[in-house]
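Q&A FORM
Asked by: J.P.
Topic: structure of Enoyl-CoA hydratase/isomerase family protein

PROVIDED:
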Amino acid sequence: MSETIHTSVSNGTGLIVLDRPKALNSLSLDMVRAITQALLAWRDDAAVAAVVIRSSSDKAFCAGGDIRFFYEAGRSTPQGGSALVEDFFTEEYALNHLIHCYPKPYIALMDGVVMGGGMGVAQGGVRIVTDKTRMAMPEVNIGLFPDVGGSYFLSRAPGALGYYLGVTGVTIGAADALYAGLADHYAPLADRAALDALLLATPGATLPAALSAYAATHQAGDSTLAAHRDAIDRHFSAGSVPAIVASLQADGGEFAQKTLAVMATRSPLMMCVTHELIKRGAALDVAGCLRMERALVRRNFENGEVIEGVRALVIDKDNAPQWQPARLDQVTEAMVQAMFQPVWPDYAHPLRHL
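REPLIED BY: S.T.
REPLY: Here is the structure written out as C-alpha cells.
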C-alpha cells in the first residue's frame, strides 16, 4: 500500500484514508493504484459490505491530481507525451469508472477542498458534504478541462448549472453542491462527533440507511446557486461560450459582471472545449465519457495549454498565463473540434475494456 493511503476493515466497512495533507491529498499515481487495489480486493470480499473514503485532515478531501507532477513529466517530453502522464490518466479514469460501477455502497466524506481528481473519487458514490466543503471543477483555470467523469456528472446537473460550473470553474459550498446534485447528504461540523460515531458503530450493510436518517435531521442552508438560477440558466444556455459572454455583457447585474471577470482569467480555448465536452457528455454513459476525456487529455498535453497554465499558477506563480489563443474571439470551431479527434482506433483505446 501507499504511504499516503491507509486501508482497514472494521464492522463490515472498508475504510480508505487519504493521508497526504501537505499536498491537500493531491492524487499521485501511487495513490490511484493503492485505492484501486483496495477496491478490487474488497469487491468480492464477503467481509466488506460498504466502503468509506475520507481524509486524514478536514482541510481537504482531495484537491485534485498532482499538477506539479503533470508539469514536470509533461514538460520533459515532446508534446507532453510522458509515459507516466499517460499511465496516470488511464489508471485514474479506470478508477473513476470502478467507483461509479462499484457493486457495494461507496461513501465519500468530502471535508474541506474537493476539486478535480477529488471529485473523480467521490462522485460515483454516496457524497457527504460539510461546512468546510469547497467544491469545484476548476480545470479551465490551469488550461485543462473538467475530466475524471466531469463530462458525465456536470452534464447531468439541473438546467445550465453544469455549463456554469465547468466553464467558469467557480468554487461552491455544501448547500450549492446539494442543489446542483453533486452531493447527497450534509453533515454539520458541530455534529461531527455523532457522524464519526455512526460511521464507526454502524455495520457496513446498514450504513447507507443510517446516513440517510442522520442527514434528514440536518439542513445545509440556502443555496447561492438557487438564488442565481434564473440568470445562470438564461446566460449559460446560450449555446456557445461566445454567446454566453455576449449574454452576460448585456446584463448589467452584479452576478453577470462578476462572472465575466472570472471568465476573463480562464483559458479561452479550454472554456470552449469544456462547453463542447459537457454537451457531448449528456449523450454518453460513464464509460463513454471517460473514454472521450482520455483522448481529450492527450490532445490537451500535446497542445501545451495545461503546461502553461500550471507554470503560471503553480510553478512561477506569476498568474499571467500566455493562453493560446489569447482571446476568446480568436478561438475557432475548428480548433475546438480538433481537440476531440480520436487519438487511437477503438480497438486500441486504453480504456476500451470499460
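FOLLOW-UP: Residues 83-100 form the longest helix (18 residues).
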